Amino acid sequence: MGTQDASLSDQCPFCQIANNQTDTEILLGDDELICFRDVKPGAAHHYLVVTRTHIENCKNLQRDDIPTVERMVEMGRSVLEKNKVSDLADVRMGFHLPPFSSVPHLHLHALAPASEMNFKSQLHYGPQSHWFITVDKVLSQLKIRGKVK
């Protein structure tokens, strides 16, 4: 994985959240991942699943990171279920492609209901977005090429 040195991750807001240096409510967490609400939600339910280890973005992922991405998806689904999202077919999960990442730290967006996202959210997270890549596409690129293109 593409990790950075400690001085850069000390300045990263998601590293600070992962290290309990903020008052952000952690909804789910384990040794590798944390999940919390997005401060600028694009849907009624909008959660971020973040790696505790600083990884710059989805383009730094390698084939070895497939299990990490799969665990991120599992945590995203778990938090959606815990928050009473019953239609898991109406969910949008994915990553922003650089340079369109608001925070340069790998984070999975889990949004629901996707069918009710407004126009602006559709631009940022919808199927026509040029800067949002779904989990399925990331995983297929990692399996085929070994890296996200």
What does this structure look like?
A six-stranded antiparallel beta sheet has the order 1-2-3-5-4-6. The two termini are 15 Å apart. The chain has five helices and six strands; from the N terminus they run H-H-E-E-E-H-E-E-H-E-H. The chain is globular. The chain has one domain (6-145): HIT family, subunit A (2-Layer Sandwich), CATH 3.30.428. It has helices spanning 6-11, 13-18, 66-82, 119-125, 135-145; strands spanning 28-29, 33-37, 45-51, 92-96, 107-112, 132-134. By secondary structure, the chain is α+β, with helices and mostly antiparallel strands.
Tell me, rounded to a whole number, the average pLDDT: 92
Reported CATH architecture:
2-Layer Sandwich
The CATH topology is HIT family, subunit A
User: How is the biggest beta sheet arranged?
Assistant: 6 strands, antiparallel
| Spatial separation of the terminal alpha carbons | 15 Å
The H-level CATH homologous superfamily, spelled out, is: HIT-like
When the domains are counted, the total is 1
Radius of gyration: 14 Å
Tally the helices: 5
Number of strands: 6
Low-pLDDT residue spans: 1-5
Strand coverage percent: 15-25%
